[in-house]
Amino acid sequence: MAWVNAIIQGLLTGGLYALFATGLSLLFGVMKVVNLAHGDLAIVAGYIGVGVIAISHLPVLWSIPVVVAAMAVLGYVLQRSVIQAAISRGELITLIVTFGLSIIIENGLQQFFTANSRGLGVGDSFITASFSIGSQITVAWFNLAVFVVAVVVLVGLQQYLSYAKYGRLIRAVADDREAAQLSGADYRHVFGIAAAIAFGTVAIAGMADGMVTTISPTLGTDTILLFAFCAVVIGGLGSLWGTLVGGIVLGVAQAIGAQVNPSYETLAGYAVFLLVLVIRPQGLVSQGAEL
Amino acid sequence: MTENATASPRSEDLPLKVTRSRRNVAWSGLGALIVIGVLFAFPYYVGPGTTGILIQGLIILTLASMWNLLAGYAGLVSVGQQAFLGLGAYFVLIPAMHGISPWAGLFIATAGAAVCALPLWWLVARLRLGYFAIATWVLASVVMLIIEQISSIGGGTGEPLPGLVGYDGAVLTADTYWAALTIAVLAIGGVYFLLRSRVGLMLTAIRDDEQAARSSGVRVGLARLLVFVVAAAGCGAAGGVLAIQQLGVTPGTSGGVFSVQWTAEMAFAVIIGGIGTIEGPIVGTVVYMVLQQTLQSYNVWYLISLGIVAIAIALFARRGLWGTLDERFNIRLFPVGYHLWAPGERRGRRRAHPVS
Amino acid sequence: MSTPLLEVSNLVVHHGQLRALSGISLAVYPGEVYALIGANGAGKSTLLRTIAGLHHPTSGTIAYDGRDVTRLRPEKRATAGIVMVPEGRRLFPSLSLEDNLKVGASYARSGPWTIDRVFELFPWMTERRGQRAAQLSGGEQQSVAIGRALVANPRVLLLDELSLGLAPVIVQRIYEMLPRVLDSGITVLLVEQDVSQALRVATRLQCLLEGRTTLEGTPAEVSREQVEAAYFGVTDGNGITDGIDA
C-alpha cells in the first residue's frame, strides 16, 4: 500500500512539475528561447513572496496574486529589454544571456538572503492536513490542492491560447512572425505577453513549492529547471496536455524510485527522461514536433 | 607553407599567394616557446601561494579552451562540462586508491573522460542547440548522482586523495603547477592543430552553413563527435589536476567538482575573452583571474560581476575582448585561417582581409 | 484624384551586397489597380515587401497619403492601411481558417469588411471555418490569405504573386473577387508573373527587369511587343532599352 500512496503522491507532484514546465515550454514554443534562468525565476517568486509577506503581513494565500502580478510585469519588462536584445543576436547569445541571468540571480539571492533555506510559513496544519481513502491511502489536502490548481491553470491557459485575442496572436506569432506583423501585430509586444504568462505561471509554481518545502537559492537550477525540462521532453512539445503528462510521468517515476531507495528518487526521474529521449524523442504525447 | 612569388612587372602574371598568416609564423612559434619557458620557470621565482593561484588559472584556461572549442567552433553549447571535470577527478582518485600514482592517473583521467564522452554524446547528439545545453546539464547531474551512490569512493561526501603522502608541500605545488601547465599547453596546442587540420576546415564549413557543408559531403555528426570527445578529454585532464591540487575529490553541486559553477566560469572566461578565437580563452582567463583575486573577499560577487560582464559583452561586443582587438588590428597569434595576398601586397600592410 | 495614395520615389534596395532595386519610382492613385510585372528575380516582390515594411531601403522614400512612411515599422503600416497578402500565402498553419481571419482582424481599422462579409465573398469557407489552415489546398489558402488582409480594412492592398503555384482556373476564380474589393474602396497594388492576367485586371502597370523600370503605362497604351521587350530586356527598333547597361 505504501506503493499506491507513493504513486498518488508522485501524480500530485507531477502537477506541480507540469506547472513549472509550462513557462519553459511556452517560451520555447513561441520564441524559440530556452530560458536557462527559468528555475531561478520560481525561486525569485518565492523570495518576493517572503518579502511581500514580511512587509504587508498579508496571509500567504493573498500574497500569491501579488507575487504573480509582480512576476508577470517582470517577465514583460525583461523580455522587451534583455531577452529581446539577445533573441535578435541569435540562439547562442540567447543561451549565454539566460545562463548569465541564472548565475546572477542565484548568486545575487545568495548574497542577499544567504544560502539558508526559507519557508513560506502557512502553518504546519495546513500543509499536513490529509484525508484518507479507505484505510490505507492518505492524501494530503495541500498536495491535492496544488494539483488541482495546476490543472486549472493549464486548462485556463489552453482556453486563453485558443480563444482570446492575444492567445491567438501568441500562436500566430509563434507560427510566422512576419505574417503576424503584416496583420498589424507588434511581435515584440506579443513576445512580452507570452513572457509575462510564463513568468506568472512559474511564480504560482514557485509559491506553491515554497509553501510545501523550503526554498533556497540553488534550488532553481538543481531541481526546478532540470525537472521542468525533463517534463517537457517526456511529454513532448506543442501541447499543454503533453506537459501535464510529462510532469505526471516524472513525478510518478521519482516516487517509485524513492520507494525503492530514498537516494534513487531524482535518478529514477532522469532515467525515465533518458529512456524517452532515446526511444521516443518527440515525447509521449506530441505529434512529432522537432526538439 | 609560402609559395614563392616571382617578381614580374605585370600583376596578372603573379601566381596567387596563399599563406596561413600575414606575419611570419615562425616568429609567433618562437614567441610561444619563450612564453612557455618563462611560465615554466615560475615556481623557482614565486612562492607556493602564488603558484597555487596560477594552478587555478591554468585549470580554468584548459577548461575555457575546451568550452570555446565546443561553442565557438562546433556550435555546441554545453552546460554540463563539469561532468567530465568530475569524471577526470575520479579517474585520478580511483587508481590512486589502488596504488597508481596520481601523476600517471592524469593519463587515465584524459582517456577515461574521452571514453565516457561516447555514450553521453549518443544520448544528446540529436538535440538542437538550446535543448542540447540543458540535456548536458541533466547528464552532468546523472553522472554525479550515480557516483554519489558509490560509497567506496566516498559517496556524497567525497574522498581524500591517497598516494601523495610524504611529498614536500612546496615541491608538490610546483609539480602540480608543471602538470597543469603541461596540460594547458597541450590543450591549447591540441585545439590549434585540430583547427588547422581537415577537421578544422570541416568545422568552419559547418559553422558558416551547416546545410551547405552537409551537402558537400562533410560528416557533420562525426566532426561534432570528435570535438565533443576532445573537449571531454581536456576537461578530464583538468579534473585530474584539480583532484591533485585539492588532494581529494568532493562531488556535489555547491563548490563540488560537479558544480555548474565550473561551466559558468569557463563559459564566461570564453565569452569575455572572445568566443571563436584561440586567443580568446587566454585573455578571458586572465580577466577572470584578475576579477576573482580582486573580489576574493566578496565570494559571490565575482560570479555576479562575471555574469554581468559576460551578458554585456555578449550583447554589445559579442566577439569579446580579443575578437574586437583582432577585428581592428588584424592580429592572429594562432592563425588557423588562410590569407590571400592581393597582387603587390607586402607583408606588414593592413589592407587585405584575412579569410578565416 | 490628383494626389497619389501611395508614392514611391527613387527606391534603392539591397539584399546584402546585391542591389535588388535601382531607383524605382511609382505612384498609385485611389481606386487603381496597379500591376508590377517582370520575370523572376526582377525585384517585384522585393519592392512590395519594402513598401510593406519588411525590408529597409538603402535610399529613397515611400509616401502614403502624404505621410513619409519609409521608416515606419511593418505593423504600423498595416494599421495605417497598407496591408499585404504575402508571396506564398503565409497563413498561420497551426491556426484554423477562422482563427487566421480573426488574427487579421485583430488590429483592423473600421470599414465595411468583416469576417462574415469574407464568408459571403467565399461561401465555401463557412463550412470549413474550423479546419486547420495547413490542411487547405493552395487555392483555398490563397483565398483565406486575401480574406485575412481584407478584414483589416486596408486602403491599399498589396497582392504578391497571387497566381504562384496555382492552376490557371483557380487563379481566374480568385481574380474574380477583385471587383468586389475595389467596390469597397480599396486600392490595389499587385505583383503578377502572369502577364496576360495582369493586363486583364490592371488600370496601370510597370515592368521591372533586374531592379530597373523598363516600361510604364496603361494596358491600352502598351503593345504586346513592347511588353515582351521590357520583360525580357531585348532592345528593339522603337528605342526601348534593355535594363542591363542603363
Using brief descriptors, characterize the structure shown:
A: 291 residues; mainly alpha; 3% strand; B: 356 residues; two-stranded antiparallel ribbon; 13 helices; disordered N terminus; disordered C terminus
Q: What do you see in this structure?
A:
The complex is a heterotrimer of chains A (291), B (356) and C (246). Chain A has a domain at 18-217. Chain A contains twelve helices and two strands; from the N terminus they run H-H-H-H-H-E-E-H-H-H-H-H-H-H. Chain A has helices at 2-31, 38-56, 60-87, 91-113, 124-128, 141-163, 165-175, 177-182, 187-212, 219-235, 240-260, 265-279, and strands at residues 130-133, 137-140. In chain A, strands 1-2 form a two-stranded antiparallel ribbon. In chain A, helix 2 (38-56) crosses helix 9 and helix 6 (141-163) packs antiparallel against helix 9. The radius of gyration of chain A is 19 Å and the shape is globular. Chain A starts with a helix and ends in a 12-residue tail after the last helix. The mean pLDDT of chain A is 88. With 356 residues, chain B is an all-alpha fold. Chain B has a domain at 49-257. Chain B contains 13 helices and four strands. In chain B, the strands form two sheets. A two-stranded antiparallel ribbon of chain B has the order 1-4. In chain B, strands 2-3 form a two-stranded antiparallel sheet. In chain B, helix 1 (25-45) packs antiparallel against helix 6. With 246 residues, chain C is α/β, with parallel strands linked by helices. Chain C has a single domain (6-232), classed as 3-Layer(aba) Sandwich (Rossmann fold), CATH 3.40.50. Helix content of chain C is 32%, strand content 25%. Chain C has ten helices and ten strands. A six-stranded mixed beta sheet of chain C has the order 6-7-8-3-9-10, sandwiched between helices. A four-stranded antiparallel beta sheet of chain C has the order 2-1-4-5, with helices on one face. Mean pLDDT of chain C is 90; it is low at 240-246. Chains in contact: A-B, A-C.
- How many helices of chain A? 12
DSSP summary, beta strand count of chain A? 2
The CATH topology of chain C comes to Rossmann fold
Strand adjacency order, main sheet of chain A: 1-2
Which two chains share the most extensive interface?
A-B, 45 and 43 residues
As a whole number of angstroms, the C-alpha radius of gyration of chain C is 18 Å
Tell me, briefly, the overall form of chain C: globular
Biggest sheet record of chain C: 6 strands, mixed
- Classified in CATH, the superfamily of chain C is P-loop containing nucleotide triphosphate hydrolases
Largest sheet of chain A: 2 strands, antiparallel
CATH class of chain C: Alpha Beta
* Unreliable parts of chain A: none
Quote the beta fraction of chain C: 15-25%
Structural class of chain C comes to alpha/beta
Oligomerization state of this entry? heterotrimer
Cα distance spanning the termini of chain C: 32 Å
Radius of gyration of chain A over all CA atoms, rounded: 19 Å
User: Widest sheet of chain C: strand order?
Assistant: 6-7-8-3-9-10
Beta-strand share of residues of chain A: under 5%
